[in-house]
Amino acid sequence: MAIDDRFGGSSWDRGLDRRSDMDGIRNGLVRRIVLLMAVCAVGAFAPVAFGWEFVKGPPKVETAPWHPLLDASHNPQTHVLGLSISTGYCAGEPPPKIDHVRVVERPKTARNPSKSTVITAYVRFPAPMEVEGEVKPGEPQPGCAGIGVGIFKRIRLKRPVEGLLLYDGSFSPPRRVQP
């Protein structure tokens, strides 16, 4: 006895062929939807392209403001002056170091009635991260996780520090610094 005979009629009469056709169409649509969702999911994890990127720049030397570290009460005739330089760098970069310090000791003149010294500290940034390209409106702004660092440098002057006016040469014109 055939299966069709047990259920009374042919499979065409019961609509089984039409149902299997609909199942095939439905399975095809489900496959396409799943494929589309997979493509969208992969696209969501793809890197977003901006008009800028971080690149490792060449080493650069910049002037840096400083503060004097001096306790002249112990020895007022000292020729040694300590400089405290506060600077920073981005995480992942090598830390900056003192490159050199330029000291210009100015003599006492009619225009400048007191002895003064202009001190300019230079800091070397070995390989700073720089932004290359254009940051367009609406894009996230480039930034860095800043790390503050203090650098100490001791210099020797030709004259005693007592009575000497100190100027920071990283500013234009040089700014007076109180010891």
In percent, how helical is the residue content? 10-25%
Shape estimate: elongated
Q: How many separate helices?
A: 3
Counted beta strands? 10
Give the N-to-C terminal Cα separation: 113 Å
The ordered string of helix (H) and strand (E) elements is HHHEEEEEEEEEE
Write a brief caption for the model:
By secondary structure, the chain is α+β, with helices and mostly antiparallel strands. It has helices at residues 3-6, 11-14, 16-45, and strands at residues 52-56, 60-64, 66-69, 80-90, 97-106, 116-125, 129-133, 146-156, 165-168, 175-177. Strands 2, 5, 6, 9 and 10 form a five-stranded mixed β-sheet that branches. Strands 3-4-8 form a three-stranded antiparallel β-sheet, with no helix packed on it.
How would you describe this protein?
This protein has 2 domains: 3-45; 54-177, no CATH class. 21% of the residues lie in helices and 38% in strands. The protein has 3 helices and 10 strands. The protein has helices at residues 3-6, 11-14, 16-45, and strands at 52-56, 60-64, 66-69, 80-90, 97-106, 116-125, 129-133, 146-156, 165-168, 175-177. The strands form 3 sheets. Strands 2, 5, 6, 9 and 10 form a 5-stranded mixed beta sheet that branches. Mean pLDDT is 75; it is low at 42-46.
